[in-house]
Design goal:
Layout: H1 2-30, H2 40-54, H3 56-61, H4 77-112, H5 124-150
Helix pairs in contact: 1-2, 1-5, 2-5, 4-5
């Protein structure tokens, strides 16, 4: 189930990335002719935040992150399983907390009518999208932790 959710958000991230790239190239081409795209840096910043956040779950699922296990490999298989579970639970709680606080920040932006400086675009949709991406990462970590704990195999698959 999570792989479908991760794939869905990855597709959205890809669309935003392509749109951001097209806008950046158009700005570079039009600028020498005196027609720069107003607010292009704002839009690239918003696009980058969305692409990064919505790609987190997929990146975690595909193990496209670094893992430092210098000490981890010296523990017994059972200890690795327990430590892996605990680490995934702590990380999931951390990302749930980040998502919660970012959601509150987005609601604050919405209530106060915070807008970007150049284009006057509301901040809250982007902030809420980043909170959603972080939440998806937290759910992935939590689900992996449960799989680790419930697996019959004593070896942790990293």
């Amino acid at each position: 189930m999570m792989n479908k959710v991760n794939g869905f958000f990855l597709h959205i991230a890809c669309l935003v990335l392509v749109a951001t790239m097209i806008m950046a190239v158009a700005n570079m081409v039009l600028r020498p002719f005196g027609y720069p795209i107003t607010g292009s840096f704002e839009l690239m910043g918003f696009g980058s935040a969305i692409v990064t956040a919505l790609g987190l779950g997929y990146s975690y699922e595909k193990k496209a992150h670094i893992a430092v296990d210098i000490l981890f490999k010296h523990f017994s298989k059972g200890a690795r399983k327990i430590l892996s579970f605990l680490g995934q639970m702590v990380c999931s709680l951390f990302f749930f907390a980040i998502s919660w606080k970012m959601s509150l920040l987005a609601l604050n932006f919405m209530e106060n009518g915070e807008l970007s400086e150049t284009l006057c675009i509301p901040f809250y949709p982007v902030t809420m999208t980043v909170a959603l991406g972080v939440l998806i990462l937290g759910i992935n970590l939590f689900a992996t932790g449960l799989k680790t704990l419930l697996s019959k195999d004593k070896e942790v698959k990293r």
